[in-house]
């Protein structure tokens, strides 16, 4: 009820401003100790990527790009939170307006473009924190870094965040940074993951700990591309695939206001595409690499669907905009009823 009232006010203003106000309000409530009641969810511990997760439900990257709010977001009950995408240098992203709600479909289109305060700011935020769940950090390249030099950006970020991340996600699938998705092609991905793998080996020896690395992929992939990505992830000993990012498809929102806006579509209409990609990667990987299912979770049933399809963990984002904190509890309750795989 409280969120429904807040949602009406937030939906009356610009989506990006509403996003900022909601996070600032949650952070204030966290600091005042007013969010402790939200944490009362069943314990559902699970081991994945060599890490112990309090539960298998996570918050996807993009909501907290700069790690300014993740401790407060942890109060909602997530077992893990992924911050970012962060780039080596700060960048403003694409011009506003760049977020568009499609309430009739419980969907959002965004063309943010990796707007963030840079990796040094994020490192300052995560150096000392009290979040008790697993912290993932999502990394990308600056918009003006040539594609042939992209590996340098990813390696730079990996070196900076390595001591503080529980796991790292390599984002090669946002549709809002020009040509980024070309890094998903076999040759480009082979070179990128080789550089990242070599960097991780050096950092593992230096820090005395091996940090798992996930690769986040698009839902708009053909079977040949899925096969190539699976092969490269196994070859370079990556630890997980996150399936999936937003889609450039407009299936499910055709003819609705804002449906023609450029950017990535997320929310309920993404689920069929994301689920299809998840199932395809499960067949290709045959259990050799962990799978994190994300895209279109707007109910507890949606979360358990992805686990039944072979996901080890699940993440949500857009569903939280439309359903509020109650969605977290609903998903955890559904996962608890489902029981272990």
Characterization of this structure:
- With about 350 residues, the protein is of the alpha/beta class.
- About 40% of the residues lie in helices and about 15% in strands.
- The strands form 3 sheets. The chain has an 8-stranded parallel beta barrel, surrounded by 4 helices. Strands 5-6-11 form a 3-stranded antiparallel β-sheet, with no helix packed on it. The protein has a two-stranded antiparallel ribbon with strand order 1-2.
- Helix 5 runs parallel beside helix 6.
- The protein is globular, with a radius of gyration of 18 Å.
Summarize the model shown.
The chain is of the alpha/beta class and 341 residues long.
Write the layout of secondary structure elements.
Layout: H1 2-10, H2 15-31, E1 46-48, E2 51-53, E3 57-59, H3 70-74, E4 80-86, E5 99-102, E6 107-110, H4 119-126, E7 134-139, H5 150-161, E8 167-171, H6 186-207, E9 213-217, H7 223-235, E10 240-243, E11 264-267, H8 271-285, E12 290-294, H9 300-308, E13 313-316, H10 318-323, H11 326-338
Parallel strand pairs: 3-4, 3-13, 4-7, 7-8, 8-9, 9-10, 10-12, 12-13
Antiparallel strand pairs: 1-2, 5-6, 6-11
Helix pairs in contact: 5-6, 6-7, 7-8, 9-11
